[in-house]
Amino acid sequence: MSEAAEIARKALSRGDLIGAYDATVAAIEAGDPSGAIRHQQILALARMGDTDRAMAKFADYGLQGSSNVDERTIVPRSFIGELLDSHFGGGDDDATSLIGDPPEVDSVLDLCTGSGCLAILAARHFPNAAIHAVDISKDALAVAARNVADHGLEDRIALHRGDLFAPLSGQRYDLIISNPPYVDAEGMAALPRECRAEPKLAFDGGPDGLDIVRRILDEAKRHLTPGGGLLCEPMARLGALVVGADASANNIEVAKLHAAEGGLSIDYRATTAETLAEQGETFDVILNMEVVEHVADVGLFLGKCAEMVKPGGIMFVATINRTLKALGLAIIGAEYVLRWLPRGTHKYGRLVRPEELETALSAAGLTIIDRTGVVYNPLADRWHRSKDMDVNYMVLAERAVTHAANPQGVAAAAGT
Ligand SMILES: C[S@@+](CC[C@H](N)C(=O)[O-])C[C@H]1O[C@@H](n2cnc3c(N)ncnc32)[C@H](O)[C@@H]1O
Known about the structure:
The chain is of the alpha/beta class. The chain is built from 15 helices and 13 strands. An eight-stranded mixed sheet has the order 7-6-13-8-9-12-10-11. It has a five-stranded parallel sheet with strand order 3-2-1-4-5. Strand 1, helix 6 and strand 2 form a beta-alpha-beta unit.
């Protein structure tokens, strides 16, 4: 996120709508046309209650794909709109891209489509996809039909009326996107001003806000092609409950300060993976980043981490390969030349080869799903994915499903 977007985000989070709006105008004038800036500008206007100007901005930016909205649907402002802009570019070199080759996506389902804005954006981003869009509200679908027609997309987007997957006769999709209702009872009782003129049905997610989200997570598997993906708004906002673990109390204190600055609620603990496992903690996702190269017994450590992966859950492991190239770049380069890390941070003998890591993960009962190299480009100051696993690399492994997993996303980060 650019510095300007960060200033606008902070202003929005403390309710300074004018400050947030001004920051976005200044950023756009200074040449930052990013999705984050445009999204924040529209949010600031919508929260000020200035729906007309917010809508005009949607139309200007084409950000949410739709220009006709009235009291029958919500004003489009889904974070998924921004993600489609920023993270679906495709291409091997694009580290932030979530989908390698957008033209290869054949089918997309937009659940809870409202004005049809996300379905229309999806049609733009996935040029060869047939798109199905579902909403339970007849009124919302009337607005969606008008928007689909205005964009000339009648032959690409099929609108269905019904309850989530019910009208779809068991079809499978490469990608399911959804911005469902997910406001809890407390939030419904105190809806912000910009939401009060919008349909309640669009927000009400039951007592804890997750009634519809849980149903989507439960049923999505039966409607995804092998390798297909689900992007659901509360998860897209990384709304998972996160435990951050590191053995060093100092690191945890720094991480806490950093999270507080960003207004994030993360359960940081100065503890070890072994202790968490002994306490019976389990997670849907474990991010095991840059840790295995520091532990004495990789098999034992990964065995304990694997115990905490729920059935159907996944673990990412990022580390450094034991090659001469890694010795040159990651140890001599990073510690002695660039001084990114204190000297002696990494011991060559402790580095782990991909085949050793994968053997240990398999022995711990996990199945390897994917692997990738991660390469630093000093000119662009960016990391990107690569086939070259000689230095930094990541492996993704999952625990097979043996019984239904808790659908609520819970993640842990080791090596915070
Ligand atoms: C938060 S709005 C999202 C609209 C649009 N996708 C967007 O991002 O602007 C949620 C939509 O879900 C619809 N909805 C609520 N319950 C539903 C259900 N059980 N099945 C299908 N749609 C539902 C509402 O009518 C509303 O249009």
